[in-house]
TrEMBL record:
Gene Ontology CC, one term: extracellular space
Keyword terms: Protease inhibitor, Repeat
Family matches, as InterPro entries: CYSTATIN_LXN, Cystatin_sf, Latexin
Species lineage: Eukaryota, Metazoa, Chordata, Craniata, Vertebrata
Top-level taxonomic group: Eukaryota
PANTHER family given in the database record: LATEXIN, RETINOIC ACID RECEPTOR RESPONDER PROTEIN 1
Name assigned to this protein: OCX32 protein
Signal peptide range in chain numbering: none
Origin species: Nothoprocta pentlandii
GO MF, one example: metalloendopeptidase inhibitor activity
Residue span(s) of domain Cystatin LXN-type: 1-53, 73-177
Membership in a protein family: Belongs to the protease inhibitor I47 (latexin) family.
Length: 197
């Protein structure tokens, strides 16, 4: 779009990160405006997985975390050989979802990110129904090949938008985000500065 930027039209499928099965078909438009980041994204997905099955899997995942009597504390997920202990899969999964918000906000038309590793994770035992974790994650920046360290706090309850606060080593301010009206939505982003994590 002359004078504005580049607009892309995408058609793609989504997959379950564990089973690698196709769970949805999506259509999206992505607008990279000159000098603006993150991109403006409009997306519409049709789940190929039954909604009830998704909710059941979310609840099993949630119960596994919530049943902890002692906080989960973990380091180096995956380990140096690329392995993830089964007990830490829910911790990894929540970090992947939380980190996706950071990657979306920091990505540009020529710069992208993937999550390389959870360096540390700590669960906070809450009195309410939500689960909460603090993470230090390493993001792989492409094409620079740099590893960016970010701290994030993730708060989640099935059926509610995921809440993410983060701070990356290359920045000097906090960002707080709450996804939109549905779980997994990328709408309704709110940014605010904070002095203490």
């Amino acid at each position: 779009i002359p004078g504005i930027g580049h607009k892309y039209y995408l058609q793609f499928t989504t997959e379950d990160y564990r089973s690698r099965e196709n769970v949805g078909n999506c259509l999206a438009t992505v607008l990279f405006e000159k000098g603006n980041s993150p991109p403006a994204v409009t997306i519409n997905c049709v789940d190929t997985k039954d909604e009830k099955q998704i909710q059941e899997e979310d609840n099993k995942f949630y119960q596994k975390i919530k049943q902890q009597t002692k906080p989960i504390i973990a380091n180096d997920i995956p380990d140096s050989y690329g392995n993830i202990e089964p007990a830490f899969e829910p911790v990894w999964a929540l970090a992947v979802v939380g980190s996706s918000k950071i990657m979306w906000e920091k990505s540009t038309e020529n710069l992208s990110y993937s999550m390389a590793q959870v360096k540390s994770a700590k669960q906070w035992i809450r009195q309410d129904d939500f689960v909460e974790f603090d993470y230090t994650v390493l993001l792989h920046e492409i094409p620079t090949q740099e590893m960016i360290s970010c701290h994030l706090r993730v708060i989640w309850l099935p059926g509610h938008p995921l809440k993410v606060k983060y701070f990356c080593a290359s920045e000097n301010q906090w960002f707080e985000e709450t996804s939109g009206m549905e779980s997994g939505s990328a709408a309704g982003i709110l940014q605010e500065k904070e002095e203490i994590f």
